[in-house]
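Letters spell out the chain; backbone shape is given numerically. Both lines appear below:
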Amino acid sequence: MKCKCCGEEVGNASVCPVCGSSVSPQVQADFHAETARRAAPAGYSGDNKRYEGVSGNRWGEYFSSLFASGGNSEGGAAPRGGETDDGILEKIAREKAELVEECSKSVSKVVVESNEVISSGTGWCGYGDYIFTNAHVVEIATQPGFRKMTVEFSNKLNLGNQQVVPVKLVYYSATEDIAILLPTSGHLPYGVKVLKIDDTPTKQGELVFTIGNPLHYKFTYMEGAVANPDYKQAGSARKFTVLQTTLTLNHGNSGGPVMNVKGDVVGMATFSELEKETENVFNPIALISEDQGDLFQEVEKYKDILGYGFCVKSEAILDAIRKTEQSGRN
């Protein structure tokens, strides 16, 4: 039997040895409610519900070992345990695929409807029962004419009638472009993963990846690297700097988790630099339209994506969690 909370094998035990939750749905619900009420301490690195990576996943370790070997293409002294570079590369590919698959279980498509328009982007789970996205994705939820807001999880989770979950807005900051959502039931569906938020400073050149819903594609993977870990947008009123990456972010990627090789969240996809006619513009990347035809005509106005994706940093996300917990809005 698997724990419905973290997916760990528990056998016939009544309590999961990994996350400590009971197999009883009611006890699990009480546990998650208590988790969601906790204030996030400084440098917060998750709680008992968070995702700690695939069991035994060593993608980052293998990658570091490959570089430590000095590019051992001759099959000489292996970097670790007698393994050749080819063997390490195979393990990198396998572990990476497993990590991405697990992380995707946290990602959702956020859809907000008003009487006039529909806005959509990406969301992810990272603390208690909270779902994180960009403020510009859910902006119409703060305006007259708002009708409903939902998140849709991957059908790989086999959530049945809980694949699409109604949510409410519990935190909104247009300045930092962060929004926090909470299922109207108060709890995430069982089986959804909760990612670890890591505010350890990133370094230039560090590998990152994201999973999101660009254009008409769902739960799409993309990888890149940190181009500038402390980018300051000119004229911005943001309290925090943003993360500049080589991720090519498109409309619909807004709000997606940006993760390191351990699967920890280091930022949230927010906007991209686009070339429009003769000027470069910083463009929020939610999908907003009255119909898909108009949407793709609008996207085609942008001649080229220059190759830089900008992300809200994890320290700003942690600050938003603290404010939400302190306000008691959940």
Notes: The helical segments are 25-37, 59-68, 85-104, 292-299, 314-327. The two ends are 32 Å apart (CA to CA). The first strand starts at residue 50 and ends at 51. The chain is about 20% helix and 30% strand.
